Amino acid sequence: MSFSNRRVSVLRDSLHASADGRRFSVHPEDENERESASHRSLREHPGHKHHAALDTSRSSTGVIWTTEQAQKHGFYDEPEKWANLGQGAPEVGDIDGCFPRPDSIPLNDNSREYGPTAGIKTLRAAVANLYNHDYRQGKESQYSWENVCIVPGGRAGLIRIAAVLGNAYLGFFIPDYTAYNEMLSLFRNFVAIPTPLSAADGYHIHADKIADELARGTSVILTSNPRNPTGHALPAEELKLIQDICRDRATLIFDEFYAGYRYDNGCDGSSISAAENVIDVDLDDVLLIDGLTKRFRLPGWRVAWIVGPKDFIKALGSCGSYLDGGTNVPFQEAAVSMLEPAKVRKEMASLQTHFKAKRDYVLKRLNEIGFHAGDQNRPESTFYIWLDLTTLDPPLPKNSPIDISNGLAFFDALLEEKTIVVPGIFFDLNPAKRRDLFDSPCHHFVRISYGPKMEQLEKGLDGIERVVKRARGESPSYGSAVHDEPDQKTPRSPIQFWKGKEQSGLSGERLQ
Known about the structure:
This protein has helices at about 5-15, 30-35, 35-45, 60-70, 120-135, 155-165, 180-185, 205-215, 235-245, 310-325, 330-335, 340-370, 405-415, 455-470, 495-505; strands at about 15, 25, 85, 150, 170-175, 190-195, 220-225, 250-255, 285-290, 305, 385-390, 420, 420-425, 445-450. The chain is of the alpha/beta class. The protein has 3 domains: about 10-50, no CATH class; about 60-90 and about 385-505, Alpha-Beta Complex (Aspartate Aminotransferase, domain 1), CATH 3.90.1150; about 110-345, Aspartate Aminotransferase, domain 2, CATH 3.40.640.10. Keywords: Aminotransferase, Pyridoxal phosphate, Transferase. This is Aminotransferase class I/classII large domain-containing protein. InterPro entries: Aminotransferase_I/II_large (IPR004839), AspAT/PAT-like (IPR050596), PyrdxlP-dep_Trfase (IPR015424), PyrdxlP-dep_Trfase_major (IPR015421).
């Protein structure tokens, strides 16, 4: 027997197994230790449990969580019977006037190789050309391929940006995109500071709020524009003023994934971007995130981009080598031809016409059901309705058979109708867990997506109408057109689930 094997044999003979046979120690675990309250208490510490290195506070984002709950009611078994108005994705099939969605991708030797972590040059150049054509005509400073970084999806882009930020206060506004929540809590190189927006003015960001942020030392500001979930976009003059106020004082990060979904300009195909107000593309600290996901309706491709100063782009390309490895090369190559400016303008015009019709249908149905929210619920962009449940008129009777007064309860009731929405509290970002989530001003809201096809929207609005009728006592509790008996209830209702998470400090969300 070799010396090494003798050492292993001696060590093995000296070990003592725990009562369950899983742990081994050089010290025997005697009866007193097994019965000792202090020892049992110590064993309950996460460091002594299975998967000791796992941070169990990381859970799904609101959107993913809603589908996980729907799964318990059979969503994954028969998705065609459901109306998923929760997923933040547009319909991916062909639309009149839009170019046909690709059904094949050519492959060559280069596409089988690893690609640059900042993206292939041809796609970077195509993105730069599109931005110059749409937003920078006549301006001296122009974007080049070196101002563009291709990333594998918007969340990957946000994570890259977070990784290269220095020590800073980072301001963000609520409500906003659920995936920001975990990104803002994972990184320790900045402190995330929330600023609630007012429901009274439709959750708009105003320049005076930005000025207040700068006055208290905020040097990075993150926001979606157009905004998810409210569907509003900053007016052009206010966006320009915000950029002027922040120039040389703060880094602005604009999530512009819904830039093409614009309904206030006659559906002419024009889009929204802070790129129009940049003075010098290499000196203005403005980072823009967009991609094929939303306005080109190719979410499964995971091709997105960040546009900004060359110094930022170089750092973002470098960190891709250890964060995500870069974007799929064949999809990048296939995307180049899609970004020809005239083609994009035609695409956006058809997209806007189609989605505006769906928006108007959903708003009309909600109004007929009894939700009278005025123009606050008439988004001029995105494909979301930020529905205030307190606008139901007339109000529910006090003896209502079901509670739909808040987003979680409404979501739970809709599961019985095979319809999915997203409770509003998920957009009240709370990355440091400093606030009680159930005190959230977003608690009585839900986000409804009109991204799916019209037939799904019709099915989902029918489900919402049945829930409201049940709450009014106008129809049997489970006599819906979807089923005669309720599906098996979720073992823990959404409300109890989130109360439990709040009490244990586990209400974080994972990147969507």
